[in-house]
Amino acid sequence: MKILVTGATGQLGSLVVKHLLDRVPASQIAASVRNIAKAQEMAAEGIDVRHGDFDDLALMTNAFKGIDIALIISGETDVETRIKQHRTAVDAAKAAGVRHLVYTSFIDARPESPFTYAAIHADTESYIKASGLSFTLLRNSFYTDLLMAGVPHALETGDFGAPAGNGKVSYIPRNDLAEAAATVLANPADHVNQTYDLSGTPIGFADIAAIIADATGKDIRYVDLPPEVHTGILASFGLPDHLIEALSGMYVGTRNGDYEQTSDDFAKVVGRAPQSTADFLKAALK
Ligand SMILES: NC(=O)c1ccc[n+]([C@@H]2O[C@H](COP(=O)([O-])OP(=O)(O)OC[C@H]3O[C@@H](n4cnc5c(N)ncnc54)[C@H](OP(=O)(O)O)[C@@H]3O)[C@@H](O)[C@H]2O)c1
Predict the structure, then answer these.
(1) Strands 194-198, 29-33: parallel, antiparallel or unpaired by DSSP?
(2) Which pLDDT score, from 0 to 100, does residue 186 have?
(3) How confident is the model at residue 162 (pLDDT cuts 50, 70, 90)?
(4) If you take atom 21 of ligand 1, which residue's CA is the nearest one?
(5) Residue spans per domain, the chain
């Protein structure tokens, strides 16, 4: 069985490859990357590095040749482009004879979600199901790692700000999500046509601020930012409009309680609970 990981030089993809190497020999692993030069270390480890890009059907079909199971890691551009890219990746996999697709979806994959990127995941999930290939949908929650972005400002000012109200998010570390993906890829027969909600225990922002305060010994409090102030801060960073819209929508969803659901799917797949937000932040802030 030959396994391919797209986006293998990305943050999640490289962790998936690392966890795969703990489970199967390197000769069973292929990596689809947009920049071969970034994958020299993987090639040196015996991984079959291939050139792939969701914008190019022929290139992507070639990358999927001889592959039995592939992880499609969602891309990173605007909604319309990404829907097209993911459809191209599915078409390419099918044309190349891939039998099973695993996809990094999202816990709230509804087209009407205020988190605008959710519509991409809803479309890709439907497209994969309609392809007739075997599938496993990994509905990833938000990475705990994202919380680190607010830490430097919190340390400087004492304010850990977010327009989250009293909403909670079921954060889960990126590394745990990578391990779940690798577990599925190494044993696909156990996960045929399954959809997993991969999430941690929901936590609110006042509790997150208290954990950061405890871990750093600094006086830090949660500040519930007005949404328009938050959107203005994002715009001041020069982020693209689609990302500003998605991040603003993510907090609308948070205030609605859209990401408070709990699931034991991670433990079912991996055999242990995910790392808690407190343990993640304490380790990251040591
Ligand atoms: N759950 C969450 O909290 C969360 C947070 C951020 C992002 N995400 C989603 O999860 C994905 C993986 O997260 P990450 O942390 O690994 O992000 P990342 O480090 O930014 O990686 C993004 C990946 O997307 C790949 N990609 C982008 N455009 C592509 C294209 N046209 N064709 C093929 N591959 C393409 C990149 O490929 P190369 O390696 O070839 O550059 C890269 O591996 C993201 O792309 C995003 O969709 C989830």
Answers:
(1) unpaired
(2) 98
(3) very high
(4) 10
(5) 3-139+174-198+261-274
